[in-house]
Amino acid sequence: MEQVTYNHSVKQVTEFILTGLTEDSKLQLVLFGTFSAVYALTMVGNLSMIILIRISPSLHTPMYFFLTSLSFLDICYSSCVTPKFLSNLLKEKKIISYEGCLTQLYFYTILATTECYVLAVMAYDRYVAICSPLLYMMIMSQRKCVQLLTISCISGIINAFIHTMAAARLSFCGPNLIKSFYCEGPPLFALSCSDISLNYLLVFVFVGFNLITTSLTILTSYTYILVTILKIRSATSRRKAFSTCTSHLMVITIFYGCLSFMYVQPSSRQNIYLDQIASVFYVVVTPMLNPLIYSMRNQEVRGAFRNILERKFHAQQISYL
Question: Is the confidence at residue 1, as pLDDT, over 50?
Answer without folding.
Answer: no
